[in-house]
Predict the structure.
Amino acid sequence: MYARTGQQSAAFYVLPALLFTAVVFIAPLASVIGQSFWNGQFTTHSYQSVISSTLFQKVFVNTLVISFSSTFVALLFAYPMAYHMAKQTPRRRAFLMMIVLIPFWTSILVKSYALMIILGRNGIINTTIEYFGIPALPLLFNRFGVIVGTIHTLIPFMIFPILNSLLARDPDLGRAAQIMGAGKLRIFLKVTLPLSMPGVAASFLLAAVHTFGFYVTASLLGGRGDLMMANLVDLYTREILDWNMAATIAVLLFILCAVFTLLMGRTRALSTLAG
Amino acid sequence: MQRDALIGEPMVRLTGVAKRYGGGVIALDTLDLDVMKGEFVALLGPSGSGKTTLLNIIAGMTPPSRGSIHIAGDDMTHLPPSKRNLGMVFQNYALLPHMSVYENVAFPLRVRKLAEKDIVKKVEAVLDLVQLGHAKKRLPRELSGGQQQRVSLARCIVYDPSLILMDEPLGALDKKLREQMQSEIKRLHKTLGTTILYVTHDQEEALSMADRIVLFHQGRIVQQASPADLYFKPRSVFAANFLGASNILSTTAVGDGIAQLKSGETIRIGSGAAVINNEPVMILVRPECLRIERYDETSHLSAANSVPGQIVSSTILGNVTNHHVLIADGHTVMAQELTRRTAHDWVPGEQVKVTWAAADTRALEPDEMDVHS
């Protein structure tokens, strides 16, 4: 790895960021963890009541279902896009990346309101299909709305790890397979796809972890039954005013994310091995 | 070589093939080339000379702007690479990194939908042939560069393609391994009788391996001949310079087979291009053909060319010694001789004469200047 002097200078370069993180992340996190165990006195009672609460169980399952189904569908959109981008000239690819990044840079609030305009009862889709005599579809304030909003946010996140793994491929592999007589489908299934799996795994986990903490999308586009964990934290903080419970749910959400982040580290390690 | 004089049908016949890119860039000027069945042909030239473009055209990776490609008698000009039944060995091996050695070699057979038991038999046979029978379960990254290239060779010969294309296959290996692989490839070529087109920029590799060398320069074939003919009878200054070390003297023709140095010495020409009186002519003498003699000594060689000069330096390189001599016309030539303990020790500054036989003197065609501009 690094020489000792390298590590010392690394500490020097990382120190400012470390101090900043300590103040704005580690300290509040410690305070939240403390609060989850403190209700006038030290207690683990909140953990027992959160875990046995049917509301929490329902929201926990909701969160996983929304996250994984959105991530999976987003992957189906992201992979072909990444595949197409990988085949372009660098110049054209840079242009396509810009297009992908514009929604990525747009505020999630703006995107959610835009989707409300498209999906709403009097939105673009429903007015169009009603014009053709088809009855309006419930597209907003339900699970469908949340998933559409989440997918929209996720696609840019998913494209880049996949694109990287596709670009890292040796272009001669495809040529070699072609000369050996393989057709396009076989080359994709036997060469391109397996070699891009580390990128797919990384992008899947990255996107899933990202969605665990989604809040705005669920509260703006979802219905009453589509609470996610972050919405539950908000409910306990601002409506029920039970900060002990809110902190407990936040800690559980943190643990969920941490577990998946560690998994992601594993796939990175695997993908470097494969390379 | 006359096309009609060849016996039998060629394995590869290129007719009027050319490649131009937008903006008038000529990657490959119109050329014809035949490769006979079982022949080992090296495409030799500096980078950018068109040899790799030609290989890609034959493979079907690059469509030619003009001309036709016949392989084993069939017109392949418009067929995709997958339909040409060719094999290709790449510089970076191009092994599928997620598949074992066995699966890599089995890949082309699976494409051809062979029965599993035939696949097992064939794969094991070729892996034994390249001495990698023990490594079939390993992944490519667990093998050395030389072993990976042997897998890649096995993967080519296993499906018996009409022609194997090799694109600088040994370029990524170190010198010793490269020499080992050269003899390995030659051995496989001899045993299997495969037709091989081998792209390289390494003249020694081309000289030591090929039956015939096709020399490329600026998108054209400048000469094609057997290694010995190309070495002893280069046609142009480029060919003489590209293969082996050479001394090239600028002279003026003064008669039939006679030229004169600027300093006045006449030189008899043994072979090569026709010369025209009073026109400049470039003359090739290989360093190993030059002898250095004492200035006052009578020459041992009859009909010898002889030019006075002065020793600049002598360097022992091992089994050969290189002497640099400043000759009368102001150029420095190199004479090479076998290193001998008893050889005379030439001292820098010593007056000498450089002699060589007329038979070792070859008139060269001048290089065509950049024909595209």
Remarks:
- Chain A has one domain: 53-274.
- The mean pLDDT of chain A is 91.
